[in-house]
Amino acid sequence: MSQQTTAETNQKLSRADLFSMAIGQIIGVGIMTMTGIAIGFTGRSVNLAYLLAGVLTILSAIPQIYIGGTANFPGGQYSQIAVLSGQRLAGVYTFVNLAMTLALSMYTLSFADYFMSLVPGVNVKLLGFVVLTALFALHLVGVKQAARLQNVLCVVLAVAIGAYVAFGVTHIQPDYFAPDQFMTGGVTGFLLASIYLNFACGGATYVVNYSGEAKDPTRDIPFVIIVSTGAIVVLYALMSTIAAGVLPVDQVANQPLSVSAATFMPKAVFTFFVVGGAMFALLTTLNFSIGMCTYPALRACADGWLPKGLAVRNKRFGTPHWILLVFYLIGFLPILFGIDLSTVANSTVILTTAIRGVIAYSAMQLPKKMPELWKKSKFYVSDAKLKVMSIITIVITVISILLLLVSTSPVQICCNCGILLVSAVLAFARNRYVKLEANYEAK
Predict the structure, then answer these.
(1) Residue 193 burial (CB < 10 Å; 0-12/13-18/19+)?
(2) What is the mean pLDDT of the chain?
């Protein structure tokens, strides 16, 4: 491994940068919409459901932490799966990862819709073009610049959420624990809410895909996953207490957070909450997602799953400009031609959930595939404990997928199956052209 220069190191992501990236990914529009749905499941016990969801999220992240704390995998989850679970699974992941980039257009259009609600008559396509172009331009000149933008966005996001808490906490009704308002769905409804909210809390694990751009990934990424998840879950529990407590449950169940916010926020503050909360949450998620998809694809090009020419880096900035261009077109062309890809983009959610199970299976291979590094890892545990924690994650994943199958439309289920089938076929077709390299670095 070559020695990094001071200049190169300064362009890498610090722990603070990774933390803001993770925060921006966790705090998405999910908190604005999923909280109301969870209230529909369990009423005002939604705050406890969030805390349980946080525990489930951190438990599910432990196999990822085991792997990330053992070695640095510059290709993120792609490299982890390739090294520990084999070439074919890495190929399937590669093409599923490509399908996930369809969500870029969905985030951009959602941002434009929020903007249009404040500024009627705005040209949605033009706005989408400006937003997407600006974000990709930042990634083109370096991930550090994208991280700096994320830091600014997260500060505004924090102020917007702080405003919601500050204005709302004094409006919580005194009958919060009334029997007809609390645990309204019984134990079953409470557990369903917790599993459902797991999706709103689990974004931090994807920070592993920035491993190749991190200064000290084996130390910083596990720390960031645990601390950012824990901090945001506590914040979510507080926000959900306000969301469920300022009005009767039947008025906020299955409603966005804006419904409760409108009852206690002055108009100007409410507008700021919509912009700095919902709109900036979309921007942070979009900004994070660009890099989250880029770095695994970069490694997949080097191995031969994708054309190697796409992995060429810009001489001035050291960024993969061709890969960024491909993802930019995937994000913008549907907007340009007015194609509604929200159903397709949402239809990767079962597959992205399944990836957690694949990572857990990969973690169980550490003693066999990386015995020396695993024994030196500060997260080292016995083989029995490793298997138990990995199996717990697999069980949580299976339950989550079953819940999704019940609550997901038949069209989206078919899209998930179709994407998986196409990914498997492409992986099988490309497999003989791939020369997989053990892409990891000891730290």
Answers:
(1) buried
(2) 86
Local confidence band at 281 (pLDDT 50, 70, 90 cut-offs) = confident
Which stretch of DSSP H or E encloses residue 198?
Answer: helix 186-201
Residues 6+ apart with CB under 8 A from 9: 215
Q: Which residues of 267-290 are buried (b: 16+ CB within 10 A; e: fewer)?
A: eebbebbbebbbbbbbbbbbbbbb
Q: Enter the tokens of residue 411.
A: 């069209």
Asked whether the whole model's pTM tops 0.85, one would answer no
- 13 forms bridges with which residues in the sheet? 214
- Where do we find the tokens 């004094």? 170
For 316-366, how does the pLDDT look when each residue is reduced to its tens digit (9 = 90+)? 888 899 999 999 998 888 888 877 656 655 667 788 888 999 999 999 999
Please count the other Cβ atoms lying within 10 Å of the Cβ belonging to residue 309: 8
Q: Which of 236, 220, 224 is nearest to 281 (CA)?
A: 236
- DSSP E strands in 235-288: the ranges are none
